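Q: Got a minute? One more chain.
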Amino acid sequence: MITLYTAATPNGHKISIALEELGLPYRLEVLDLQRGDQKRPEYLAICPNGRIPAIVDHEEDDFAVFESGAILVYLAEKTGRLMPSERKGRSRVLQWLMFQMGGIGPMMGQANVFYRYFPEKIQPAIDRYQGEVRRLFGVLDAHLAQHEYLAGDYSIADIANWAWVRTHRWSGVEIEPFVHLKRWRDAIRARPAVQRGIERPPSKIDLTRDGDEAARRFAEEARTLVEMGRPAPPPADAGARA
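A: Always. Here it is, folded:
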């Protein structure tokens, strides 16, 4: 059994999707980020960085793993699935996983902050981060024009990038110009395990369903996290149906 400490964010949903895809039994512990659950001493003993997600593998002497990319690699190696064992195939998966960890996630996160959460609109910052998101989307789109998935077969690299790409509207970036990226997004969204994973836990808001006014209220409530130096979560369905 694995305990997953998480919240309804792209990084959190990476792990619930992977656990569902792998069919591993797990227990969900949903942390209230606005209440500061992630800063409590008992959680910091599991995740020194005070962020979600983290897991504890009770089958391995309560072994704790934090950082979403490291968790994905751990789960893939534990099961022998979603990442090849041979050197070149494994490297391809890790390259695209690092692309998400070092590029897609940080740039979309900063776009979210300046586009959604800051009380004043600093247009040069918004333009800078949205522009970088579009550039990275272009990299994905060009690669996916020649490949069904990012690194051969469906893998943790696809899960990691998809969990962020699907929230594109929360960053203020449209996906329509990126036809191959859109094809890939929709194909992964149709997977039953992915559909289960993004409900563990469900998002608080869906832009398509709830509209801009609900998005504004959500952003105002989440702004306190930004002011306290914590990453504010995008609503998990911010772009899934765009």
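A: Residues 87-117 form the longest helix (31 residues).
Q: Perfect, thanks.
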